[in-house]
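Researcher: Let's run the pair from yesterday's discussion. Sequence first, then tokens, for each.
Model: Starting with the first of the pair.
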Amino acid sequence: MEFFGSARNRKSFNVRMKLLRSRHGKTETPFCVRYFKWILWFSLSFYFFATSLGNHRPATSSLKTIISQPQQLSVSGVPSDAAVLRQPRSLKDLRVYIYELPSNYNSDWLSNHRCGSHLFASEVAIHKALIKSDVRTFDPSVADFFFVPVYVSCNFSTVNGFPAIGHARGILSSAVEFISSELPFWNRSNGSDHVFVASHDYGACFHAMENKAVADGIPEFMKNSIVLQTFGVKYRHPCQDVENIVIPPYVSPEKVQSVLSMSPITGQRDIFVFFRGKMEVHPKNVSGQFYSKRVRTEILRKYGSDRRFYLRRNRFAGYLSEIVRSVFCLCPLGWAPWSPRLVESIALGCVPVIIADGIRLPFETAVPWSEISLTVAERDIGTLGSILDYVAATNLSSIQRTLWDPRVQRALMFHDDVEVGDATWQILFALSAKLGISNQK
């Protein structure tokens, strides 16, 4: 670079030099000129040091890792970055003590392989993951929470093969009596820092029929505790009148990965609208209730002959292979508002269409439900076809882009080991938030 390339530059330079002369006639070099090299060296060093700090990223190999999060959702409803985990989170301060109960409360039930694989198996999955997690402590005196591992959904009826939970209250009461007599921690807090799982239709009311569940209510001995339950609604309901965290139903990650290995999530989807499950042509009144509040019957009646709708009433073991081929997957209520189809659809990239008024969804502060699913009111079944046509013609690609983010799938799936962001991790973070430590590092 030339500093004095012209006569004008030289003249300017001479004027500046005259201004620098002292009254003794000697030229004084200004401080910035005398130490220019040192100032330049320091500035460059500081710049490169600051840049290296800005580019540093922590590792993400441990449960205790603090991970960076996506940006918040934009006002338009389209995510600026597929948002699942909204704030930096850490579980390094959380401690959970797991009671070691006699095997008849849990592991004995695993002799039936269905115990650890059916839709209510989150009670098993959470227990297994916690046993191996970094948050586990063997010292109950330092524990923040106490996990009570009782499997109540593994007693399968010999008549219809469904879980029979009539024994749930008795076995849970027995477990509480056992832990309160062996250790002082239940009595110390009256059970308020103890955690149970209720992974069936009406949660801590422990009955599959709503009228019976409401009549029985939540067992008195559990009313101070924290219940992890699949049942959740946004209105007042006796079966959620307890400190609770809404969790997803269990879907086997192995089965999901097996399907995705054959049909990738971004593959061809030749089924427009999919549903396979119980749809009664003539619904029967059971204890004053109609199954699915007749919603499924109305879907069959209205769209049974519509070629856009792939509706099947019979069971099919490989139905996950149909979900991965589908654009929209109907998730209507059954006896309770929630359904395993919700997780199955998301795991396999099919846009869930939730038809269950007032449902409270799992991990609502973490999963961007409004970006990845559609909610249709039960009374609007008659316009379901036109609603889905409109979405397909407008913002389907935006919904799918967010839905297919692996972090969305991970947040609703249980694994053998706790993975950062997975369902058990989300539960632990929800627990830590109750202690006010979720944003500590």
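Model: Moving on to the second of the pair.
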Amino acid sequence: MNQQLVTKDGLVSDRVREAMAASLRGCEELIPQEDWQRKLVRSEATGVPLRIKFGLDPTAPDIHLGHTVVFNKLRQLQDLGHVVIPLIGDFTTTIGDPSGRNTTRPPLTREQIEANAKTYFDQIGRVIDVSRAEVRYNSEWCDPLGARGMIQLAARYTVARMMERDDFHKRFQDGRPISVHEFLYPLMQGYDSVALKSDLELGGTDQKFNLLVGRHLQQEYGQEPQCILTMPLLEGLDGVEKMSKSKGNYVGITEDANTMFAKVMSISDVLMWRWYRLLSFRAEQDIAKLKAEVDGGRNPRDAKVMLAKEITARFHSAAAADAAEQDFVNRSKGGVPDEIPDVALTGAPLGIGALLKQAGLAPSTSEANRLIDGGGVRVDSAVVSDKALKMAAGTYVVQVGKRKFARVSLS
């Protein structure tokens, strides 16, 4: 990306250079880059921090590492002294964001939105300093807008411009329905920028159209238009699809330390560098040096362990990350973790499938049998191959897959 660090008088301070470097790190686009630099220069000259907006629609209660790509950028800019504004879209979520959808997204109820938003705060606070942030809800200005205000807002954007958006255009061409209320979503997201007088709005690459609507509406309302900064979408554990709970390729930021560490260790050596770029807070030169060492023959596992520990420590603690590393080593050697759940069962002799189900190690007896067929079940470190096995009274360490253990006392 072309970094033009030149002002009218040809001088740019080290602080502005640092802010530009932080803004550009890992980003997909910064539009327009020259305007953002001018805003940074003005902020330094006046001492007035810039207002940086990021909208969050609480469509689900949990946040995964893919969401934190943008949160990390917010934190970097917050640490430079600017005001970050996590905007909870409690109004826009009732409309439903159509971005990337080929069907109308069902809106959530107010109760669902409030429940999800409540958990967002605790999770956002693991990345940014919420005490220094300006947390807002867009119902503050959207609810009072009313029917008259909504119509006046809609008059400031054309249907032709709206149909330039890829997902709308494709659905129209394919004859798939587009509800009129879906046109309101980008308008309301853009109006948020007017209400907040934002200088910069962040979002994923799939949000580019909506962010540009914000620039347009600010100009319509006589404001200086915001700049927009888009961050790439993070590929999930499979290295192919974007991280998503529905696809099962995610790392939740509230998962326990051992699971988080093990999931990061499961990614490919190629994907690891993409995750370093988008998730790590290490200096770029340090990452480049580490990659050169791996290219020169160092075991890539060393670099992956460093990444797994950094991410695990961020959401838990350094001590938890160290313990998770040791747990991972134990499991990889076929060892048993120090702490596993104790389960007491009755009914001996008990079939192995029923035991796995009752111990919570398999959702059903049929799934337990499938796991046995796949060689994924061990009792006292020995692989179980007989689905008809009857377990006598006693105490056993039962393992399913790499991460599920229980000490079962059967009587």
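Researcher: Give me one sentence on the second I can quote.
Model: Residues 180-196 form the longest helix (17 residues).
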